């Protein structure tokens, strides 16, 4: 039994006449009668009582009519849902992000995407950058918000933000009143930084900036999360050189001062697997691009 057989049956049952049903279906009457006879043979019982004036559904026909209408309505809903998914207006998108993106670029992206595609269910997962790359390749997430470098050629990238570094220092530190600080200003201070080998490469890049300036710095503490670094700074334990977006962290006893002359910048990128062709991903990338292009 095919959906078209149900459509034929419903038309005949509602019109109570093969000729009127054929006109309604825009087909010839003999083929319609043949299709109904074939349906009755396949089912093994009659669906209509034939009379000189037309047809009347049998008891079995009345039951089938009720359920046939439900089947056709459900199939129409299913097709509409599938078409909507194909257009990317419904469905699911899984986004991973590194921790500090949660209070910088992620809220803007989610707000813009939900406004553009309210029917898409969005799942967000906090995930360290190294795990994001693996999850993208394995298909566990659709898109990641991460820091470069990303060396895997199976991942496409779009730069979202580019920001300078600033100095985080205790609010009561003597340097906290300055409008700007240089690498030389912080070189003889106790520092807290990311560990060597952290995927962002911030520690290596910061040390390289000190070396290029002919300065030796002393890093006493290491931490992998920006809020931990800033918490140590706020406690008075040390100073830190961090991306400017860390300024959104409101901690008592913490101050940020612009860093000049270092050449250090931090970038945030969007990454996705090249072979991921779902429409929801494309629309998300389009939304991200629109935010970048917005003046």
From TrEMBL:
MF (Gene Ontology): DNA binding; DNA-binding transcription factor activity
Domain (HTH lysR-type) ranges: 1-58
Keyword DNA-binding assigned: yes
Transmembrane spans: none
Keywords annotated in UniProt: DNA-binding, Transcription, Transcription regulation
InterPro entries membership: LysR_HTH_N, LysR_subst-bd, WH-like_DNA-bd_sf, WH_DNA-bd_sf
Pfam families documented for this protein: HTH_1, LysR_substrate
GO cellular component entries: protein-DNA complex
Domain of life: Bacteria
Gene3D superfamilies reported for this sequence: Periplasmic binding protein-like II, Winged helix-like DNA-binding domain superfamily/Winged helix DNA-binding domain
Family: Belongs to the LysR transcriptional regulatory family.
Protein name per UniProt: DNA-binding transcriptional LysR family regulator
Organism: Paralcaligenes ureilyticus
């Amino acid at each position: 039994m095919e959906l078209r057989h149900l459509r034929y049956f419903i038309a005949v049952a509602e019109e109570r006449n093969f000729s009127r049903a054929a006109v309604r279906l825009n087909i010839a009457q003999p083929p319609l009668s043949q299709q109904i006879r074939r349906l009755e043979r396949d089912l093994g019982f009659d669906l209509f009582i034939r009379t000189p004036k037309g047809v009347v559904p049998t008891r079995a026909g009345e039951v089938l009519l009720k359920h046939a209408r439900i089947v056709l309505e459900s199939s129409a809903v299913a097709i509409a849902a599938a078409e909507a998914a194909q257009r990317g207006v419904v469905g699911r998108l899984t986004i991973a992000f590194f921790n500090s993106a949660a209070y910088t670029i992620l809220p803007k992206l989610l707000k813009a995407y939900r406004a553009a595609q309210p029917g898409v269910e969005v799942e967000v997962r906090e995930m360290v950058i190294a795990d994001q790359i693996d999850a993208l390749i394995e298909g566990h997430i659709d898109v990641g918000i991460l820091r470069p470098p990303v060396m895997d050629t199976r991942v496409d990238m779009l730069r979202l933000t580019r920001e300078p570094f600033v100095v985080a220092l205790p609010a009561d530190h003597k340097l906290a009143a300055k409008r700007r600080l240089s690498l030389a200003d912080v070189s003889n201070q106790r520092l807290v930084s990311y560990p060597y080998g952290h995927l962002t490469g911030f520690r290596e890049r910061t040390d390289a900036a000190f070396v290029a300036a002919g300065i030796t710095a002393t890093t006493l503490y290491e931490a992998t999360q920006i809020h931990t670094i800033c918490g140590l700074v706020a406690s008075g334990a040390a100073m830190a050189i961090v991306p400017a977006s860390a300024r959104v962290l409101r901690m008592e006893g913490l101050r940020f001062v612009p860093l000049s002359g270092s050449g250090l910048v931090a970038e945030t990128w969007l990454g996705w697997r090249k072979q991921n062709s779902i429409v929801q991903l494309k629309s998300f990338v389009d939304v991200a691009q629109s935010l970048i292009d917005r003046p």
